[in-house]
Each structure stands twice: as C-alpha cells, then as structure tokens.
Design a protein that fits this description.
By secondary structure, the chain is an all-alpha fold. The protein folds into two domains: 49 residues, Homeodomain-like (Arc Repressor Mutant, subunit A, Orthogonal Bundle), CATH 1.10.10; 139 residues, Tetracycline Repressor, domain 2 (Orthogonal Bundle), CATH 1.10.357.10. Helices cover 71% and strands 0% of the residues. The longest helix has 21 residues.
Length: 199
C-alpha cells in the first residue's frame, strides 16, 4: 500500500522549484530542486512523476494564486476603473513582495511543456478577470481585438512595471499609479479632456 503523501512536502517542493527556476531557469535539475527543498531526489518523484509534471503544476499553482490575490477585495458596487485599480495594486504587491514568484512565472509562462489542461485551468481561474476586461474594453479602442491580445497587453505593462519596481522600489507608488493610468488609457481611450471634447 502506498504511503500517504504529505501536503507539506508537496508545498515545500513547489516553493523550492519557484526559487530554483527563478534563479537558474527551467533547465535547473530536479536534484537541485530536491536539495533546495531539503528532501531526497526520490521524494520529489513521489509527488511529481516527471519534471514536466512539476512545471505544469507549479505554473497552475502560481497563476491561480496570482488570480486569487488580484481579485481579493473586489466589490461589484465599485466602478470598473476602481475594480481594475484594486486588481492592479494587488498584483503589484504580490509580485514585488516575493520577486521569485514573478521571475519563475515569467519562465514558466513560455515553457514548451505546458499542457492544454494547464492552460484550461488558468483560463478558468482568470474567467472573472477576463469578464471585467471585456466590459472595460467594450466601447473603447480595443473593442475589435481579441481578448487574448488585450490580456497580453495588460500583462506586458504590468510585467514591465513589476520588473522596474523590483529593481527600483517606489514606496510612494507614483510609478505604479502612472503605469496604471497608461494601461487604463490604452484599454479605454483618452479622456474627454485629453481629446479636447466637452465632457
């Protein structure tokens, strides 16, 4: 009879993989990950039968965690602008508090070994965010482009902001606010005052 798996060991392996992939890329060995987690190489394969399995599970875990954190505290009564701003702030805090998560996710997001099931799980986790973005862009300059492009644009602006803030902290949040404003205008178009139109 197989021994029951210890959730703490699995969590430790995922955490170790996050740090190792962030620092060494996806080419890092499973032995390095096991050592970082303080377990034997054989123990790693008890929880993840292949490195590809580990990569997929870590990708889904980190993306799911990021989606959960980003949407924390959102209220249906808030304007779409305020909802997206809260998501943005949550996202920035999550990524800059532990840069390893952001760096590992950047590696994982372009991994060739990601499965269709993993992509589907992430799409499900981000369904609410996708709906908000669709509503925000419905009448703006992005209305005729695929939602996947809108999401990629938003992610690119966020990733650039996060990378800069990791290297150059911004305690006052000025650069983060400026970047959000740029993203909002990209999604919705310029304000009436910017175009010279009468409100």
């Amino acid at each position: 009879m197989a021994r029951p798996k210890n959730p703490a060991h699995r969590a430790a392996l995922l955490s170790a993989a996050t740090r190792v992939f962030a620092g060494h890329g996806l080419g890092a060995s499973t032995a390095m990950i096991a050592q970082e987690a303080g377990v034997s190489a054989g123990t790693l394969f008890v929880y993840f039968d292949t490195k590809t399995t580990l990569i997929n599970e870590l990708y889904v875990t980190l993306k799911g965690e990021m989606a959960q954190v980003a949407t924390a505290g959102l209220r249906a009564s808030d304007t779409p602008h305020d909802q997206l701003r809260r998501m943005w702030d949550n996202w920035i805090i999550w990524a800059t508090t532990d840069p390893n998560r952001h760096r590992a996710l950047a590696q994982l997001s372009v991994a060739e070994d990601l499965s269709g099931d993993s992509h589907q799980a992430v799409r499900a986790a981000y369904a609410g965010i996708a709906e908000l973005l669709a509503a925000i862009t419905a009448d703006g300059p992005m209305q005729d482009v695929p939602l996947s492009f809108t999401t990629a644009l938003m992610s690119a602006i966020a990733d650039t902001t996060i990378d800069h803030l990791i290297r150059h902290p911004d305690p006052g949040g000025i650069r983060s606010s400026t970047a959000f404003g740029a993203m909002w205008r990209a999604l919705t178009g310029p304000s009436p005052t910017e175009t010279g139109a009468t409100p």
